[in-house]
């Protein structure tokens, strides 16, 4: 695909659409839009544009489509796979002005929001009405809900409440042609033709630009309990995970954390936490509901299960401050790891009973290729984030040899029935590994679908495949 | 699209693939495959073939693709939108020999099944292991799980447990080209390229033929309570629905039944049920869980809500026999209506708070066009099955004038934020109404996707759009 540069004439047309104030071309201001949270990658766009209506997005898309200018949609820039990086230059469509919760429909337990709403702000607004939107990635305080939809984002509560796919009912989307459609209906069930809503979810901004989102809400659980279980080894902690479900419990969160991650959070975040010798890994387990007796019984059952898996200690959070502190331990881990070293994050996911084998294999691969890794993640979903630390590795090894190590980790993941990403998406950085799991038939179908939506290939080029 | 007839040569090739015993060409035996449960429609295929491996399906697809022979996949033939009708003749691919539960993986709470497994048999097998697969359409005793996936089927428990989209993790699919792929991974989360699993769900056998299904299972609730609430009017019953959720309850079923439907079940099925004068409609409400106190508290809360909506009586099922009898009332309603009259069934779905307006509009339209209707369905999901009764209507009115009435019902449905089908699919009989909700842009995207999977258009032609 050959793209054009943005000419003075096109730039003038862009300014006419959104107004001069919402167009950035100066290099220092472009910097913020040249990266997301993926490694230390930088790609500069030619221009950043901040529309605020679907009509403006439509006009911009038509203009770029006619002039073969690449368009990269961008949410909050918290992505971990490079999905928002404008690798071909061109225009970055920054969605930050789409920041309104348009409606919270308490009768239908639905909401209509714009894609640039910060996930946590939306969660708080619905919580005030006694409702729950349970899709809360670790970055919930800064990420946008539009980015969550585009990446199929998850977070700790998917394990009980289901994936984002269950909560996104309908989308207003601007296609590369500039046409504006609603993908489906504002209904809890849908069996009316190929499901375009589901196709958009996780398509990483390559098929269309989301301008409105209709979300399903549910009644909010009123109480919860949180416990932290300590194990001597990673494998022991991971082995306990599937047994908890087998005991008939669906926790509202079941998170795994490796000791090294906790150490770094302590150092970086100053969290007061008594990290005992001989402890190698933790499970952070939450149950929620509406009845104290049930919560208590669930905790007891979990405790019994943990005993069978050589759990050394179970710490119950008694106060909401303690709960917050334990959650902070988990939620800030990514940031702490990042601030300690150059790193690469892989988002492996396997059937949950295969977690012990996965983490064992990751460490073996690390030994073979000479890298340290810090693992944590949504163990209840079989979703393990693998943070590979540069540490003392030479730049050559980091940039070249490491690829083979990552490949081995993904080969293991796939051999266990898993895939390359559970919730971060493929974006730029995992693209090269897709052939480990998918064959030419998959690629041909994906390319074909892309072509149907975006015949000139202008939308977020260079991503996924 | 111009298709070819099946020649002697092609027939010989078909027989060579599956063996003579699994090929039907004699007219009397073809009759069973000429219809499903949709109205009184009949379309005869030229041949019915019963493969039992993906390799056989692949060989058949290649043969038909090369010879431009239409292929209509068929499950149990319980569909209500004509999806399994071979409207262009050709070959019916009957999946009844794909009838094995291949694995129930108790460690991962997953199962791998063939598409021709009867839904209820699968549910019973996992129930024996203390597990739940909650997608149980009214036809669960005879329908196939493969048909459920193809149509995005639902049933009463979607309201609590989520749609079939949340339970189908991975599919083995034979494409029209004969290529065999797995659409995704055996994982609870998936963010690895366009989601082909989700695209297959609800595609009504037009994109590929499903040969294996990986299913998510959950721990089974141990107790439940069932109540039947009586109201004087349809609108009163429907108005109570959204209030139940607003009170913080998510019932495991919330079904609406119109009086006329209950009358017909009584007549047809001989169910002993005291149908009191002045009662116009019912809600069948189930709550489930693991704790008797919680169930009891939920029932009390629901009772309070019902009182606010002019509920005349609440009947609690005390024994499992009583529960079964109440469920039979609901589950056999479709069959009872069918045995009483020629009818057409529409599968409207709206945001649940719009149900009162929907049912009022349906009755007004009935008055205007002179038809009686019997409504029932999954009110908790806003999903109302509208059975239009031929009764004394002339054949001319039934075949022609009625279309305008149905159109009005769908126009109302769409104006309320809803769509044409929540769980039955579009198939043949709703196809003509799709333009009420969808525009040329939607159709172009759908046709484009179809073309990517099936460039010769041989797979289930004449359906959806």
Automatic annotation (TrEMBL), chains A, B:
<dbReference type="InterPro" id="IPR004113">
    <property type="entry name" value="FAD-bd_oxidored_4_C"/>
</dbReference>
<dbReference type="Pfam" id="PF02913">
    <property type="entry name" value="FAD-oxidase_C"/>
</dbReference>
<dbReference type="InterPro" id="IPR016167">
    <property type="entry name" value="FAD-bd_PCMH_sub1"/>
</dbReference>
<dbReference type="InterPro" id="IPR036318">
    <property type="entry name" value="FAD-bd_PCMH-like_sf"/>
</dbReference>
<dbReference type="InterPro" id="IPR016166">
    <property type="entry name" value="FAD-bd_PCMH"/>
</dbReference>
<keyword id="KW-0274">FAD</keyword>
<keyword id="KW-0560">Oxidoreductase</keyword>
<dbReference type="GO" id="GO:0016491">
    <property type="term" value="F:oxidoreductase activity"/>
</dbReference>
<dbReference type="InterPro" id="IPR006094">
    <property type="entry name" value="Oxid_FAD_bind_N"/>
</dbReference>
<dbReference type="InterPro" id="IPR051914">
    <property type="entry name" value="FAD-linked_OxidoTrans_Type4"/>
</dbReference>
<dbReference type="GO" id="GO:0071949">
    <property type="term" value="F:FAD binding"/>
</dbReference>
<feature type="domain" description="FAD-binding PCMH-type">
    <location>
        <begin position="41"/>
        <end position="220"/>
    </location>
</feature>
<dbReference type="Pfam" id="PF01565">
    <property type="entry name" value="FAD_binding_4"/>
</dbReference>
<dbReference type="InterPro" id="IPR016169">
    <property type="entry name" value="FAD-bd_PCMH_sub2"/>
</dbReference>
<dbReference type="InterPro" id="IPR016164">
    <property type="entry name" value="FAD-linked_Oxase-like_C"/>
</dbReference>
<protein>
    <submittedName>
        <fullName>Glycolate oxidase</fullName>
    </submittedName>
</protein>
<dbReference type="InterPro" id="IPR016171">
    <property type="entry name" value="Vanillyl_alc_oxidase_C-sub2"/>
</dbReference>
<keyword id="KW-0285">Flavoprotein</keyword>
